[in-house]
Amino acid sequence: MIKMVVFDMAGTTLNEDNVVYKTVQSSINQAGFNVSLDAVLAAGAGKEKLQAIKSVLADMDVHDDNIAQNIFSHFNESLHQAYQTLHVTEQNNASHVFNVLKEKGITVVLNTGYSRAIATMLLAKLGWVQGTHYDLLITASDVAQNRPHPDMIFSAMQQAGIENGAAVIKVGDSTIDVEEGRNAGCDISIGITTGAHTKEQLANAQPSYIIDDLSEILTIIQSHPYQVA
């Protein structure tokens, strides 16, 4: 029986026009580099943002922690400014899917490579409230190890009293989301094409399914051998 669905945030359940990764890109380039947004998404999507910066730099054979920390500090300042006017919308059918899952008694979890402060700001812009729109929020700043480690999913499972990963579905728009689900023992890890990575990139992580719209999750749950009775 499926008891929990863990959703990534940006690119999966909400659309913030890639402002975070665009800010990562501009912060890196202002430090004297020349990296494209596609390169930032390929190396950093889904990761805690300091680690995302380090991963992008590593792809350019730059491994200086001081450089990464300075870029990260600039990133945080720039992102705070960007959020003042940022328009955030939900991805197609997000609220509908949440409602249907909650009606079935399935716990709806949001998890993210953002810090809790950033995630909370995004949710406030959407008007999503814990206990009403979703059940739990687990962020990169809440756990010791971030994606692809399974700590965030394990934390959600512990809080919900779920012991078996077979009862959990992970959904995300990046390959690292798929890896996170697999590392947590989720029987189903779903890649969605609405965000950071293309269908071809997602396929490289070998997800259980690749979908184009969140509503497809409902069909997957009904056809799964651990489906809700």
Q: Can you name the CATH architecture of the largest domain? A: 3-Layer(aba) Sandwich
Q: Strands of the largest sheet, in order across it?
A: 5-4-1-6-7-8
- Gyration radius, rounded: 17 Å
What are the secondary-structure elements, in order, as H or E? EEHHHHEHEHEHEHEHEH
The third-level CATH topology of the largest domain is: Rossmann fold
Strand content: 5-15%
CATH homologous superfamily grouping of the largest domain: HAD superfamily/HAD-like
Keywords: Hydrolase
GO biological process, one term: DNA repair
InterPro entries: HAD-like_hydrolase_sf, HAD-like_sf, HAD-SF_hydro_IA, HAD_2, HAD_sf, PGP-like_dom2, PhnX-like
GO molecular function, one term: phosphoglycolate phosphatase activity
Could you please describe the fold and organization of this structure?
- The protein has 229 residues and is of the alpha/beta class.
- The protein has two domains: 4-16 and 88-223, Rossmann fold (3-Layer(aba) Sandwich), CATH 3.40.50; 19-83.
- It is built from ten helices and eight strands.
- Strands 5-4-1-6-7-8 form a six-stranded parallel β-sheet. It has a two-stranded antiparallel sheet with strand order 2-3.
- β6, α8 and β7 (188-192) form a beta-alpha-beta unit.
- α1 crosses α2 (37-44), α1 (19-30) crosses α4 (65-83) and α2 (37-44) crosses α3 (49-59).
- The longest helix has 19 residues, at 65-83.
- The relative contact order is 0.18.
- The model has no long low-confidence stretch (mean pLDDT 91).
- One of its GO terms (biological process) is DNA repair.
- Keywords: Hydrolase.
- InterPro entries: HAD-like_hydrolase_sf (IPR050155), HAD-like_sf (IPR036412), HAD-SF_hydro_IA (IPR006439), HAD_2 (IPR041492), HAD_sf (IPR023214), PGP-like_dom2 (IPR023198), PhnX-like (IPR022468).
- This is Phosphonatase-like hydrolase.
- GO terms for molecular function: phosphoglycolate phosphatase activity.
